[in-house]
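Board work, copied verbatim: Enoyl-CoA hydratase/carnithine racemase
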Amino acid sequence: MTETVVSEVLSEVRGQVGFITLNRPRALNALSLGMVRDLMGILLAWQNDARVLAVAIRGSNKEGPFGAFCAGGDIRFLHQAGSQGNPLIEDFFTEEYALNHLIHNYAKPYIAFMDGIVMGGGMGISQGAALRVVTERTKMAMPETAIGLFPDVGGGYFLSRCPGRVGEWLALTGDTIGAGDAIAYQLADGCMPSDRQAAVWDALATQSFADGAAIKAYVASQFVAAQASGSSAQADIDQYFALPTVGEIVRGLEAADSDWARATAATLRKRSPLMLHVVLEQIRRARTMGLADDLRMERDMVRHCFFLRPGQSETVEGIRALAVDKDHAPRWNPGRIEDVTPDMVTPFFASPWPVHAHPLAHLA
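↓ predict structure ↓
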């Protein structure tokens, strides 16, 4: 008996819209290199297809479409490849970041239905959308510091453009936010009830639209109000996460007398001390960068994370503790925020490539 191989990325053109469904529900649609390549091929083909006026993308869960958008990159593959020096890890990040860039600059409206979990790589394939749709089930985060990585896939670019110091807070803590906060923090454009998504998706296939803008306007017409819960913490976020260094942020939070500050400090104490310092520098550099330059910087950083700290990759250790051995006891090096020196942070921002030979040199 031959086993049927089901594609992890389903695509079809119905009516005037190109539809994409991420179809790896058991892994919460975590992106593999094959999925990145499939998405790139589909989007490049549709960019010049006159039949396609807009693109819609969704995830799936074990019950069917929607329910989970994308939980990030395939971190088990990253652990295996990073541990063994597999060159495919280089291809994964180069091609993923090129895909992120294409989505941000796509010639037609790209509409992301960000239902359920939207984290890491899932943010990379949705933040560049012309319309970012969240639901009451959305759980959004960039949790990379928990695995000794940094918020990549353009995270420096889109987090640094959140209001106030929300970008630093989300990048350093990896905290999860819902629909209302995602809209308030400019990481989503509107909220749709989860039980309306299927009808809207089907209407895109059957209705007639004058152009891509009309498709985008139709989806936006289905938005409802969403309650933001984190806005009460905004003043605290701006106060503490504007401080100059990670050490000062943590000391300030630990000296404060509020449950929010204590919980936030405790979260930061669990993250990779080194990567907290690297991430603060990343977000603040990215604030004055265009997307292409930010992605090139992040490509430099990821090479350092996996290959240029021999025998002591925070990322390989973080993934081991969280997803492989699951002991939740990463052995960070250095072990304390106070022990990280500027000399440890600076190398992450030195490019291993000359400008003309950078793997993302072609991004405009």
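The radius of gyration is 20 Å.
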